[in-house]
Amino acid sequence: VNSSTEEELLLDTMEFSTEQALNVISCEADWLKLSKNQEARYGKYLVTNDLTFVDNPQNGEAKIGTYHCTGTFYGSIDFDGHSITVEFNNSNQNASTSKGMIEALGPDAVIENMVLNFVVDGTRNLSYERGASFIYRNEGTLRNIVINNDYRTGRLGHYQNAPVINNVGTVENFSISYSATSTNYSANQMAGLAVNNFGGTIRNGYVYSSRDRVIGSGVYTGSSGDRSYSSGMVGYNSNGGVIENCYGYMNIVTEKGSNENMTGILCGRNGAIMRNCFTIGDRYRYDYLNGEQQPSNIWSTYNPAIGSYTATGTSSNIRYFGNTDYGTDYTRETNYN
Question: Which residues, other chains included, contact 59 with Cβ-Cβ below 8 Å and sequence gap of 6+?
């Protein structure tokens, strides 16, 4: 302001913001925006409708491989409560090269407020190996997610899971359910959340099933030598990974044989840190004789929450409520409200 002339000098009238432009994903075709170019990989996205992807489209559905986001995504996706359904339905499919809908999340990437429906329709005798329904490797953050697993009849191979195969980042505030009509069978490594937690953090989660979760075996169109290994909400927790404040409600059933102890409601094999977890349910085991599954019985050798430990695995404040005392150093609750 010039005091002698009372004249104002206006330096700038432009308004600006550091907020990123918001990109809308309103249909399956918009998923291709995520990997359109390098700038798109750092973008901010809002999902405004439910999405469905199928690996073997029968009625014009969007094909998983066609819309797969290759490379690393560094931006953010807010599903705003909308769902993404990923269905594997191809006959005799070996999905060893499948890396889900997003190959990798970068360290600062965020995906939130999502419902993930993971369907494996095994009516045509599927055999899947190393298939991820959503993210192959997570170095970022997934939060506020609901995961609905619907594993139907047929054999599931190892590394079968819903959101993540290899977790290095954070997964928090989640729930996982297994469909009451699903058989929930797998042949080997399988998890409801992450097959491998390599130094990442998994916290504030709830996993449940209204029926027994049966892990492993040749009874269900697989080989009798294919038994459970590192199977649970998290298959293998290692490299300083942390699982904390998680709750499980289900019975878990494994086939008698090699690696039979590496199955738990919350973690199949713990080589890192677990703390402040609680489960309701029991561990059962059955024999597979003459091509038939034998009756299951309580297996009290191992706690139902954690299958087994490596030399680097530790746990604290792990509690369970079940029909038997598993004779471990965990705390058994005799009643709950």
Answer: none
Q: How many CB atoms lie within 10 A of CB 100?
A: 24
Separation CA 224–CA 99 (nearest Å): 27
319 burial type by CB count under 10 A (0-12 exposed, 13-18 middle, 19+ buried) = middle
Pairwise CA distance, residues 67 & 88, whole Å: 14
- Each residue's pLDDT tens digit, 227-278: 566 678 898 899 999 999 999 998 888 877 767 778 889 998 899 999 999 9
Q: Cβ-count burial of 283 within 10 angstroms (0-12 exposed, 13-18 middle, 19+ buried)?
A: buried
Cβ–Cβ < 8 Å for 103, 137: yes
In this structure, are residues 93 and 128 in contact, taking their beta carbons and an 8 Å threshold?
Answer: yes
**Are the CB atoms for 233 and 206 separated by under 8 Å?**
no
- Report the distance separating Cα 59 and Cα 43, nearest Å: 32
Torsion sign, CA atoms 269, 213, 203, 299: negative
Please give the DSSP secondary-structure letter assigned to residue 133: S
Phi, psi angles (nearest 5°) of residue 40? -65, -30
Rounded to an integer, the average pLDDT of 285-309 is 81
